[in-house]
Amino acid sequence: MSQGTAVDGTRTGVWFVGARGSVATTATLGTLAMNAGLAPRTGLVSELEPVAVAGLPPVEGLVTGGHDVIETPLAHRAQVLADGGVFPPALVAALGAELAAADSRIRLAPRRDTQREAAQAISDDIRAFRDEHRLDRVVVVDVSSTEPPAESKPELDNLAALESALDAGSAPLPQSSLYAYAAFRAGCPLVSFTPSPGATLGALTELAKQQALPWAGRDGKTGETLVKSALAPMFATRALRVRSWASYNMLGGGDGRTLADPRAAVSKTTTKGAGLDAMLGYHVDGPMHIDYVEDLGDWKTAWDNVSFEGFLGTRMTMQFTWEGCDSALAAPLVVDLVRLTAKAHERGENGVLGPLSFFFKDPLGSIDHTLAGQWRALTQWCEQLGARA
């Protein structure tokens, strides 16, 4: 079965910002492989019964496209990832025609003189993608390089002020926020999978509400933070006092290269460390460090050292090492988020989707950072979505 052909006729577009990057390439190839019966659905939370009860759009109906700043063919990018052990090289060979078709739906990111013109060009490309492929809806997914935190500007907090700034030809928006603006103007929901500012700016959350669009974010929870969100509540409920929680991360690939810039790394370390105090109920010394190691490729390693004390003040430690393939961990979550956000859009929900906090390091729309609590919120919401069918 080719990409975009669903048994029930539902066709959902996925417009990637960073469509030839590692995560988007892995998600695209993975979708093709599942549709062709060449890969199981391991890692898809949306296939678990408590989530699937929502009646989600089928994987077979997903059609990928998007923007990127590079012209490297998708098949070549996939081969590089296969050579690095991200997925079997045989999949790239078997899906050559399908990858070429997916590559034809990727366009170079438009360059324009003003942000107003750029936003219009982005919106036009998304609308053309939706119309050309007869899609029921398009979910825009930002998997581009991490940006530094946004500078505080008055025009970013109010939609009318932002529109005036864009009309005046100024460039107040970070690139991720420009794409969020363009997505909402095109009538599309958004998934912010990176720690970049995206739709978190006040003017853009206002625009999403105005356009009655749902969005989810931010920064996909794929590795060390996933483990932390399961372990920290264990210490809290066992009444063991954590004294410090030190984290050291080594990361290769494009994401690691980007995070070698201290300005971009601030965004990542902020979201990675956001929930520890909330889960434990008190402040903990939690130093965190990220190093770029080119040799690791698409793989990442995290080493954590937890110092805690128990009965009578006895000092103890726990250490764990997490080694994972970044794209293989992230790609299925992207597919999950597309299906869930598309369903929310179909059901008329708007604004930030708090029940999707399960998937994010910085769970917008929710104050619960614990994995178990986030899972309960997700499954209860999915049950409600299914009941409304």
Automatic annotation (TrEMBL):
Signal peptide: none annotated. It holds the Pfam family NAD_binding_5. It comes from the Bacteria. Coiled coil: none annotated. Residues 223-327 form the Myo-inositol-1-phosphate synthase GAPDH-like domain. PANTHER family: MYO-INOSITOL-1 PHOSPHATE SYNTHASE (PTHR11510). Belongs to the myo-inositol 1-phosphate synthase family. This is Myo-inositol-1-phosphate synthase. It comes from Georgenia wutianyii.
